[in-house]
Design brief:
The protein is of the alpha/beta class. The protein is built from nine helices and twelve strands. It has a single domain, classed as P-loop containing nucleotide triphosphate hydrolases (Rossmann fold). Helices cover 37% and strands 28% of the residues.
Amino acid sequence: MESSVPLLEIKNLHAGIDGNQILNGINIEIGAGEIHAIMGRNGSGKTTTANIVMGHPDFDVEEGEIKLKGDNLLDLETWERAKRGVFLSFQYPQAVPGLQVGNFLKKSVASIKGEEAAKGKNFRELLKKSMKELNMPSSFLSRYVNDGFSGGEKKRFEILQMMLLQPQLAILDETDSGLDIDGIRTVATGINSSIRGTNSGALIITHYSRILDYIKPDKIHVLIDGKIVATGDSTLATDLEENGYDWLEERVKEGGIN
């Protein structure tokens, strides 16, 4: 029987940094197998939401709840959330010269899922399958982490990590930035295969509708000034692509959205 407890529940979340209020009462529920997207202008609170769910220590939660399968995440450190199955991709992943991709992936899987998960045939088969799905050559494993990677290679590498870690919740921050149309399609395929029909879920943060054309999120949430002012299906992203955010901002000013 399907559980009535959401995979992720964000309830009345108020938060900020250095005394500056950024989020003003965020509410989001993501069920198992669902993919949601957050859209909004720069500075609207999208990346702040991602960082707070992951437990970034610089941000202060003033009010509200964040629960994963009913368990309170706010009491957990960042590494504890990762162990519970929360994964966050980064907008600007750092290079690590001297650390080979293959070794990094093994260490990452071992640290989150245990040493046995990073050994043997199952790991090798999943790695091979995932790399094939993302159109990544086997020679990629001998390169150094993000060292000299193109923008597209960095994004595919992040999705590869997600596919190997198999998190309960994947938070993907601007995974489509810097990708051409083929790269967007490839990354979207990896996301869909990892989430759809599983007990996992994903929260995608993006400026554009391009990747959403291939993912078809269950819900899209629009953030303006730290508040969700609209929620809809993939047609909402099309409206934003065609008309921008001005019409929503006008509705907020006129009091048409609470």
